[in-house]
Amino acid sequence: MNRVEGRQKDAWEKGEIYEFWRRFKKNRAALIGAGMTLLFFVVGLFAPFLAPYDASRISLSERLQPPSLKHLLGMDELGRDVFSRIIISARVSLMIQLIAVSLALVAGLLLGSVSGFYGGIIDKIITGFMGILMAFPSIFLAIIIIAIIGTQLSNVIFAVAIYLIPQFALLTRALFMSMKEMEYIEAARAAGEKDWALITLYLFPNTFAPILVQTVMRLATTLLTVSGLSFLGLGVQPPAPEWGAMLSMGRTYILTAPHVATFPGLAIMFVVLGFNLLGDGLRDSLDPRLKD
User: Fold this and answer.
1) Which of 86, 116, 223, 253: CA 20 to 30 A from 75?
2) Which has the closest alpha carbon to 159: 87, 232, 241, 104?
């Protein structure tokens, strides 16, 4: 290794990326959560290739059959392969999560940055509206929105995104308010930097860590909410497979064929646990106040 390469390596090892990775890989729970989350993403992306059977194929002669070598997780009330439906449902859940959280993230960052940077009457209006949304429990607010606009998949995504916006907006506002009076911001302002430059080049980069953690946590919340709505018949509509809807249909047979409800419930638990472990690990690894 020459002297230049040695200096580059030392610079990287002393940098924030190395410090983050060093702390993250020592957190076993975080690594487990990352593995669980990665598995969910892989299954969701390649679901059509991983499902052994057509998730919509009905075989009434095989209805409610228990797990076997032919059907690893058994058959549901219509004789559909539970394993295939769980895999396809992962794709549906992943799509809803990514779209809903992305919409909420963009809207929340925009509203929160404007509110926190400018303050005054703009801040009061935005925080007041966010407070109204936060006053409703998430599932209740989503139910109200869906009851008004309908149960189409796009409406479900919109409803979930709406209740997520305040969580991103208020966090961004708090971060901006704590940073906008710092010396480096005052120096940039004195140097003639415009407001948009202060926001995009100086403030936004320093919100990355907490926003990333919040995003991962909200992916778990989104899955729980969508599953809850589908369980109530207000989310993803049949015949499309969805874990919450599968759990709702399977509860009728909880005594005679418990596998129909058990495996979708375990899938929800697995993915939510994975996101929560990953989020906690990211929070601990990205917090500069933690020293080891």
Assistant:
1) 223
2) 104
pLDDT at 12: 44
Number of structural domains in the chain: 1
Cis before 264? omega within 30 = no
Residue 124 lies in a domain: yes
Domain contains 54: no
**Domain limits for position 176:** 27-49+88-286
How many CB atoms lie under 10 A from the CB of residue 17? 9
Cα–Cα distance for residue pair 101/91, rounded to 1 Å: 15
CB 260 within 8 A of CB 3: no
Looking at residue 144, its pLDDT comes to 87
Q: Are 77 and 100 in contact (CB under 8 A)?
A: no
Region for 6 from its dihedrals, namely left if φ exceeds 0, alpha if ψ lies in -120 to 50, beta otherwise: alpha
Do residues 90 and 37 lie in contact, with contact meaning Cβ atoms separated by under 8 Å? no
In total, the chain counts a number of residues equal to 292
Q: How far apart are CA 279 and CA 292, in angstroms?
A: 19
Tokens 């009061």 -> residue: 124
DSSP character at residue 81: B
Is a pLDDT exceeding 70 seen at residue 14? Answer: no
Tokens of residue 269, six digits: 């638990």
Please report, as a single letter, which amino acid is at residue 160: V
